[in-house]
Amino acid sequence: MVPRITKLGVLSMTAMGLLILTSSSWAADKAPTAEEVKKIADAAQGLVAAKPEKPRKLLVFSVAYGYWHDSIPCGQEAVKAMAAKTGAFEATVSDDLANFQAEKLKSFDAVFFNNVNEEIFLPAGFDKLSAEDKAKATERDAELKKSLAAFIAGGKGLAAIHAATNAFRQWPEYGDILGARFDNHPWGAGSTVTLKIDDPTHPVVKAFKGEPFKLTDEVYQVADPYSREKVRVLLSIDTAATNMNVQGLHRKDNDFAIAWVKPCGQGRVFYSAIGHEHALFWNPTVLQHFLDGIQFALGDLKGETKPSASPR
Fold first, then answer.
1. Residues ≥6 apart with Cβ < 8 Å to 269
2. I need a labelling partner for 115 at 20 to 30 A (CA). Which of 2, 66, 77, 133 fits?
3. Exposed/middle/buried for residue 265 (C-beta within 10 Å: 0-12, 13-18, 19+)
4. pTM as predicted
C-alpha cells in the first residue's frame, strides 16, 4: 500500500462507447500494466449479467487517504470491463466530489466504493488548511454525507469492497449503512483462507457454486455494528479449514464475515471484503461475484436481504 494524493483527470471511452471520467493521479505510474488489463479483459469475457430493467448508471469512486491500495486501478479497470462486456450499466469512474451533490448524484443508480479509505469527502491536506477553508470543507463534507445517505435510503444502491469498511471513521451513520467497521487484518496480504458459502442460493454468490473457496488476499476482521441480526451474510471464513493461529483475532463469536447484503431504507447495500490482491480482479469467480453485487446494488439482480439472524 502507498500514500494516496487525489488529483482529477481525463476523459476516455470504453469499447462500447460509454463515457468514463477517470482519475489521473496514478495514470503515469499506477495504472494497470498492459498484461493486467488483458487478464481483466479476458476474465470479463465469461461474465453473465442480469438483464437491466432500464439503462443504469454506476458511479465508481476510489479516493483513499492514509494508505492507498495499489489494486485500486485494477478495480477501476475491472468495472469498466464489466460495463463494456455486458452492457448492464454505464460506468462513470471519477473521484470528483461534485458527483455526490444531491442534484448530480440522483442521476446514478448506485455508487461503487472501490477500496476507499478514511475521510474521503474531505480534501487532501485538510489538517493544513486555514481555519476558513477547514470550515468550508467541513460544511461540504456534511452536505455530501447527507446526500449519500438520502440517495441510498431513497431507493438507490451502494456496492463496496475491501477497505470501504475503514472509510468515514468520523461518521457514525456510515457504519450502520454499510453494516460493519474495519477492525484489522489478522491474515495479512498474501494469506490464504477458506471461505464458506453461507447462502448458496443467493444470486450474489452464485459464482461460487456452493463450494468452499480458497481466497488469497489481505483478509479482514470486522467490528461493530456488524451483526447477523442486521446483515445477510453470504460469505465467511470457514474456521475449521483455515489457520486460526494468527495474531489479532478479537471476535469471541468466531464469526468472520467476508461478504453480505442488507437493506438501507428503500435502498440496497452490498459489501465484500475481497479486493487487496491485484490477481483477484481477473479471477473469474471473484469478478462475477463483484458484478453480481453491483447489479444487486443497481436493482437488477434480486436477492433476499433478510438478516441471517444469528451466528452459527
1. 152, 157, 158, 159, 160, 177, 178, 179, 261, 262, 263, 297
2. 133
3. middle
4. 0.90
| Beta carbons of 157 and 298 less than 8 angstroms apart | yes
Report the phi/psi class of residue 211: left, alpha or beta, with left for phi > 0 and alpha for psi in -120 to 50.
beta
Q: Tell me the C-alpha distance between 68 and 2, whole Å.
A: 5
CA distance 150 to 18: 27
What rounded mean pLDDT belongs to the chain?
91
Which cell is 199 given? 447462502
Distance CA 28, CA 30 (A): 6
Residue 14 has pLDDT above 80, yes or no: no
Pairwise pLDDT comparison (20 vs 274), residue with the higher score: 274
On whether the CB atoms of residues 223 and 175 are closer than 8 A, the answer is: no
| Helix or strand run (H / E) with residue 200 | none
